[in-house]
Amino acid sequence: MTEQQPGDAVPVAQRGSWSSFLKSIASMSGDLSSLTAPPFILSPISLTEYPAYWCERPELFAAIADGKTSEERALAVLKWFISTLKGQYTTRNESAGSEKKPLNPALGELFYGYWPDQDGRGKTTLLTEQVSHHPPITAYVIENEKKGLKLVGHNAQKTSFSTGSIIVKQIGHAVLTVKLPAGGEEQYLLTLPRLRIDGLWYGAPYIELSEQSYIVGGGFVGVIEYKGKGYFSGKSHSFKATLTPQPGRGGSATKEIVVEGTWHQNSKFTTGGHGSFHDVSGPKEVVTAVGAEASGEMGPMETRKLWELVAKGIREGDFELASREKTRIENEMRQRRKDETASGVPWALKHFVPIANDPVYEELAKHTKIAPSTEDAYVFQENWPQTLREKK
Asked: Could you tell me which PROSITE patterns the record lists for this protein (predicted)?
């Protein structure tokens, strides 16, 4: 087998720009999000669509509501969360041969979609809005009204370069609210793992998860440790999740539950249970995009309309078209920001209102080592577009 050489995965015509890109990364000491990547490494999808990865297995999301006890629901939340990771962090590597850099969203960019009701699981609807450009922050809501489930969160990234890898600190959190059949509700706080993007030297980037993320709620504390593959040992995409009842909570549950495996394949119980825990070898369900205009069409700020020609250029290998249209959009957005500054009228968000401190985060973060102890949030204003209400 021939040993892979630096730049082997880079198209010959793009190797000069890739080399310059790597030098730019290595020389920057601050956030890398503003760097312009070579066209061949761009994804045709904006970050505004990424919240759809939370629910590409909608049956697992719906199953959370079917848990009869707090322990069953906490395990269902953990299973659903672990099952989202494959779509979020390996999909592009598997389909395109390497990780691709998503398009940087414009402030006010929107995406709407749904997964249909099947086998009584209820319809699941999605709404996302780019609520900040500097730093880039995407807010989202995913709701299954029939099952009484709603996930509201926001996500941002802070990137840096270290020892040949791009390190991505994911900022933000999500809160899952579960309405209980007997009345009342449970809320779960979910935090996000840190990412390490390796393979840059060869022009074939891929993502590995690192450190920990947390799921806290329903009387349980879940800690997910991402181990990954080191230089000399370990297995790619490995994880260990530990679910522990809070003192005085969790009903009759007193035992610790441990699950181990690979998040992009499958896992099993190693403590407190038996057999398989999750398996994502089956097909996923891609979201159905919906236009929010009264006519059913997509408006100018809806992501697939806004980036239509850029995406076309990337998919067809017409990087001149992609670059030209991307530059045009970015220049238009810069001018819009200048005009707003000059007029003193800031951009008005359409679906969310920012708050400086999320009380659910503050309360649930107390039960484990989540830092910081407080965090801001974006409150959804319950103003679904009519075209999605019809899907609900």
From this structure: OSBP
- CATH class as words, domain 12-289: mainly beta
What's the rounded Cα separation, in Å, for the pair 299 and 248?
51
The reported pTM is 0.89
Q: Residue 362 CB: number of other CB atoms within 10 A?
A: 14
Q: What is the pLDDT of residue 2?
A: 44
Fill in the amino acid letter for 309: L
**For residue 197, what pLDDT is reported?**
83
- What does the pLDDT look like over 335-374, one tens digit per residue? 988 988 899 988 999 999 999 999 999 999 999 999 999 9
Angstrom CA distances, 62 to 79, 147, 286, 290, 320, stand at: 12, 6, 16, 21, 43
